[in-house]
Amino acid sequence: MLDQHDVPSASPTDGAQPGEAPPQGRRILIVDDNADSADSLAMLLQLGGHEAHTAYDGPQGLEAAARLQPDVMLLDLGLPGMDGCEVCRRVRQQPWARRALLVAVTGWGQAADRQRSQEAGFDAHLVKPVELQALEKIIAGLAGRG
């Protein structure tokens, strides 16, 4: 499982040049009960050439995932209604989710938190505030997935 400290910084030759769209935009669903944070991250990802959607609690995130079938889900762990780990487990049961990248994006960064997210089925664990460059590097790694 990856975290933002495992991701090397992007060099100017990685993917798009500043101001250009990435080689392939992704459909991304951000699920976070902090609407300002979710909306800001969605805007940044859209500026980077991605299609970004938001949901603000666990059940809403699960419904949006079923409808959108995103390439990438960024899930806060401490969600109301249903925590991010349970959302992840339920999403992972869906056939379309085999190809999806699920990333825990949370303020919880202890070893036990990372272990819990890995056991739930997350591919990566990022601690807030998320470094956009680290997130983009993880998303770019999706191209190598089948």
Automatic annotation (TrEMBL):
- The organism is Azohydromonas lata
Full protein name: Response regulator
Q: Where is the Response regulatory domain?
A: 27-143
Q: Which domain of life is it from?
A: Bacteria
What keywords is this UniProt entry annotated with?
Phosphoprotein
Chain spans, region Disordered: 1-24
SUPFAM superfamilies listed in its UniProt record: CheY-like (SSF52172)
Q: Which Pfam families match?
A: Response_reg (PF00072)
Q: Which PANTHER family match?
A: RESPONSE REGULATORY DOMAIN-CONTAINING PROTEIN, STRESS RESPONSE REGULATOR PROTEIN 1
In the record, 4-aspartylphosphate modifications are located at 76
For this protein, the record's InterPro entries field holds: Bact_response_regulator, CheY-like_superfamily, Sig_transdc_resp-reg_receiver
